[in-house]
Amino acid sequence: MKQSSLRRAGFYGFLTAAVLVILAVAALARVAQTPAPASIDPSNTAALLEGYRHVEVASVSDALEQLTGRKMYMSHRMRPIFPTKFAGLALTVVLKKETNNDPNALSGMLAAIDQGTKDSVYVMVVEDGIDIAGMGGLMGTAMYSREFAGAVIDGGVRDVAYLKKIGFPVYALGIVPSTSIHHYRFGGSNIPVVCDGVEVKPADIIVADQDGVVVVPRSEAAKVLELAQEMDFKEHSMYAYIEKLKSIQEAVKKFGRL
């Protein structure tokens, strides 16, 4: 009986140790997925975008606020049509509200898409357009074929089933079946805009994930990325520390990140 109890105790001890090893390995794997911060060349756009694709948008938002004192994130209203993560360069477009019968009223909007390049993010402001679809499947297909990173619409989006089918990521204020034809006129492209309350300039870096959308001014991009990477590295390192000590207070005291 005593031997049986000892065997059981030994088995449970082994099982507990095995579980702890598995948890430690999993935590270390999470840390390994986050590279240590590295120096960023501000002139290397491809490297900047690659870096932003691998940091969390929440860290980018925190880094921006810490470095510039500005809140550059869009509101909770700006939501994706499916879970996604991307980074790219802003290509801005404005639609002005105007009833018209002009067949060319939106020609400039289409031209802007056809002039866009790989890694562009289509940032459209539809004036008073929360219930107007600023884009749909046809425009999304054109952006997808030109290798845009995604689209952010201060207005609505439609043809969502097709956009999901081709896997083109779109953030918008809502999903609506309406059209902008005969209700809007092209107001300009590659100009500074205010999208969901945030200033966006052409070629600013737009980063998005399931936490939302952040605009990084191009002039601040390298510094913000370096700090965001540092924040990510600390935060991901904290998971194992918290699991080990079962204390978030001790982890925050050690790493200085919350």
Q: How do the strands and helices of this protein lay out in sequence?
A:
Layout: H1 2-32, H2 45-52, H3 57-68, E1 79-80, E2 86-97, H4 107-114, E3 120-126, E4 133-135, H5 137-145, E5 150-157, H6 160-166, E6 170-175, E7 184-189, E8 193-195, E9 198-200, E10 205-209, E11 212-216, H7 221-245, H8 248-255
Parallel strand pairs: 2-3, 3-5, 4-5, 5-6
Antiparallel strand pairs: 1-6, 2-7, 2-10, 8-9, 10-11
Helix pairs in contact: 1-7, 3-7, 5-6, 7-8
Question: Can you describe this structure?
Answer:
It is elongated and about 65 Å long. The strands form two sheets. Strands 1, 2, 3, 4, 5, 6, 7, 10 and 11 form a nine-stranded mixed beta sheet that branches. 37% of the residues are buried. The longest helix has 31 residues, at 2-32. Residues 14-37 have low confidence and may be disordered. It folds into two domains: 34-72 and 218-258, no CATH class; 73-216, Ribonuclease E inhibitor RraA/RraA-like (Glucose Oxidase, domain 1, 3-Layer(bba) Sandwich). By secondary structure, it is an alpha/beta fold. Helix content is 42%, strand content 23%.
Distance between the termini: 51 Å
Q: How large is the radius of gyration?
A: 23 Å
Residue ranges: pLDDT <50 for 5 or more in a row? 14-37
Supply the number of structural domains.
Answer: 2
Order of helices and strands: HHHEEHEEHEHEEEEEEHH
Which band does the percent of strand residues land in?
Answer: 15-25%
Overall helicity: 40-55%
Helix count equals 8
Described by the principal axes of the CA atoms, the overall outline is elongated
Mean pLDDT: 86
CATH architecture of the largest domain: 3-Layer(bba) Sandwich
Q: What is the CATH top level name of the largest domain?
A: Alpha Beta
How many strand segments? 11
Structural category: alpha/beta
Reported for the largest beta sheet, the result is: 9 strands, mixed
**What is the CATH topology descriptor of the largest domain?**
Glucose Oxidase, domain 1
Assign the CATH superfamily of the largest domain.
Ribonuclease E inhibitor RraA/RraA-like
